[in-house]
Specification:
Pfam families: BPD_transp_1, BPD_transp_1_N. This protein is mainly alpha-helical. 78% of the residues lie in helices and 0% in strands.
């Protein structure tokens, strides 16, 4: 178990370093932040002074090692726009993003998994075809298109809900639905496929032939074995709670981390962009680590693999 955790933590650390390096290099290649922030009409002396003040006049490799060393000390930099710490700006936006993504995650899991199980248990029936038709529609329609359609129907035509902002809980309904529908469709498809694969296994037929009630076969044998691929998708959704809301927050003018990322990229606010990407990477690798641990709980064979390998050796 210690070796397992050690290998996963090492992989997570390497992933975070790669994300930090990639973000640093791409942002430096995408344009001069000093010129963008100061404006095209700024005198060259002012632009040079800005570069010197933020260390942008130094070689890129020196900037990288300085930035990486600052991260190790807990310093994620300051915003070039207002001089505040980047982590403070991002932390202020996290509650707004979670106010959308957590209810949306509940919709994804609460709607997608039961729909996939129901479709698998009624394979090739009208229920199966209806669920899959809705799942394909929900999966293929881009989130920004779905969001605009919901605004057109429920905000513009019917006037039931506001089209954007964060003034009340009613403002969160449309973005939550927009985020939840696509994820529920993905979960429904994966859950159905996993259930159908498990239901076709010999041990399912053997349990049924022995007279085990079908409900007990489904709950005791099929669902636990079909849970592993489903847990993988849910883990990915948990890891993308922050990154997955970028488009939806922009469509609905929701003041979350995703919208802050869009604004920071447009303004070349390097520290803020790097802080958000680091937060997304840490969320994702933490989610993947939890999923790996859940694998061992759901499938005892995975827990016993090191022991069997040691015995064979």
């Amino acid at each position: 178990m210690i070796r397992f955790l050690g290998s996963r933590l090492l992989r997570a650390a390497i992933t975070i370093v790669m994300v930090v390096t990639f973000a640093f290099v791409v942002l430096r290649l995408s344009g001069d932040p000093a010129q963008i922030i100061m404006g095209a009409d700024a005198p060259p002396e002012a632009v040079d002074a800005f570069r010197a003040a933020w260390g942008l006049d130094r070689p890129v490799w020196i900037q990288y090692f300085h930035y990486f060393g600052a991260i190790l000390q807990g310093d994620l930099g300051r915003s070039m726009r207002d001089g505040r710490d980047a982590i403070v700006l991002v932390a202020e936006r996290i509650p707004a993003t979670l106010a959308l993504t957590l209810p949306a995650l509940a919709i994804k899991v609460g709607l997608g998994i039961p729909a996939g199980i129901t479709a698998a248990l009624h394979r090739n029936s009208f229920i199966d075809r209806a669920v899959m038709m809705l799942a394909v529609a929900g999966f293929t329609v881009p989130s920004f298109v779905l969001g605009l359609l919901l605004v057109l129907v429920f905000a513009v035509q019917l006037g039931w809900l506001p089209s954007g902002g964060q003034d009340s809980w009613r403002h969160a309904i449309l973005p939550i639905i927009t985020l939840g529908i696509g994820g529920a469709a993905v979960l429904a498809r994966f859950t159905r496929s996993a259930m159908l694969e498990v239901l076709g296994q010999p041990y399912i037929r053997t349990a049924s032939a022995k007279g085990v009630p079908w409900r007990a076969v489904v709950w005791g044998h099929a669902l636990p074995n079909a849970a592993i691929p489903t847990v993988t998708i849910v883990g990915f959704m948990v890891g993308s709670l922050i990154a997955g809301a970028v488009v939806v927050e922009s469509v609905f003018s929701w003041p979350g981390v995703g919208r802050l990322l869009v604004v920071a990229v447009a303004n070349r606010d390097l520290a803020v962009v790097q802080c958000i990407l680091l937060l997304v990477a840490m969320t994702m690798v933490t989610s993947n680590l939890i999923v790996d641990l859940l694998y061992g709980l759901l499938d005892p064979r995975l827990r016993n693999q090191p022991k069997r390998a040691a015995g064979i050796a």
